[in-house]
Design goal:
Strand content: 15-25%
Structural class: alpha/beta
Order of helices and strands: EEHEHEHEHEHEHEEHHE
Helix content: 25-40%
Shape: globular
Distance between the termini: 45 Å
Strand order of the largest sheet: 1-2-10-7-8-9
Number of helices: 8
Largest sheet: 6 strands, mixed
Oligomer: single chain
Length: about 290
């Protein structure tokens, strides 16, 4: 069995401490259990495999992609298994764990100025495509990103909740997860509510974005999101720490943001089955201040 066959079918576990309402259940989709440690394994595999099927890519080609971390890790190992070379462009303030993991998988890394964020990395990746002949997957505009979740993530949630899910909550970065999951779930039951978590102005939450207009991913369709809940950095960090201490779930800050949004939602619910995405694993952030507690 190839390790690629282990992507997906991640556990869905119920909260044991965060919800006190008897008729509301909160579940966590543990995407850190993917081989590469995050939800991004799904679109990385789908984008590369579908491009190969179409003939857009062939063994030995050079890929380039802008990433804030998890997509890069997933693309690094998936591309190697398909015989592709990859250069990953990311902000220089990315955590040491992510940088070392990508290099361990054999990727070339190009670090861009921190003050330009992922937008600056995207500009560099586009330039490498246009001037150096790299193939750009472009997760922000690639329909195979959201289709990965339409084919796998959402059907798993639908099955594992026994078709009882009422609300789905996801951090929004490239928006592939929320777009693909929304598409499938709404086809099963149009009354399922789709909720996106977004940073408040001035808050920096790795993995969650509030894009400037010119950089909004083209795969994003606002009509597929019923509600957007804004989270600040303090809330996301505190919830990430609570997940570890109270739920035994060691995850990154975007997961804390997703769950913080889910609890804000639950404050106004009398009944429901809520599923929140746990995007990755906390060991990617040990060199940061995320788990610094007094």
């Amino acid at each position: 069995m190839s390790i690629l066959k282990q992507i997906g079918n991640t556990p869905l576990v119920e909260s044991v401490s965060l919800v006190s309402k008897p008729n509301v259940r909160l579940f966590f989709k543990l995407e850190g259990n993917n081989p590469g440690g995050s939800v991004k394994d799904r679109p990385a595999y789908n984008m590369i495999s579908e491009a190969l099927k179409r003939g857009d890519l062939k063994k030995g080609d050079r890929l380039v992609e802008a990433t804030s971390g998890n997509t890069g890790i997933a693309l690094a190992y998936v591309s190697q298994l398909f015989g592709l070379k990859i250069a990953l462009v990311m902000p220089e303030n990315s955590t040491e764990e992510r940088i070392k993991t990508m290099r361990a998988y054999g990727a070339e890394l190009i670090l861009t100025p921190a003050d330009r964020g992922i937008e600056g990395s995207r500009d560099v990746a586009f330039n490498m495509r246009d001037t150096e002949g790299y193939f750009l997957l472009n997760q922000f505009e690639n329909d195979d990103n959201w289709r990965a979740h339409n084919k796998t993530t959402a059907p798993e949630i639908w099955k594992d909740t026994e078709h009882k899910i009422t609300h789905f909550v996801s951090a929004m970065g490239t928006t592939g997860t929320i777009m693909g999951t929304s598409t499938f779930l709404k086809e099963q039951n149009k009354n399922i509510q789709i909720i996106g978590a977004q940073p408040e102005d001035g808050s920096r939450i790795p993995g969650i974005r509030k894009w400037s207009p010119e950089y909004v991913p083209s795969i994003f369709n606002r009509d597929k999101v019923d509600k957007i809940i804004e989270i600040n950095e303090t809330e996301a960090k505190a919830m990430t720490q609570r997940l570890a201490k109270e739920e035994g779930i060691f995850a990154g800050m975007s997961s804390g943001g997703s769950v913080a949004a889910a609890l804000k939602l639950i404050d106004n619910l009398d009944h429901g089955v809520v599923v929140a995405i746990i995007c990755d694993r906390g060991d990617r952030y040990l060199s940061s201040s995320l788990f610094d507690v007094s």
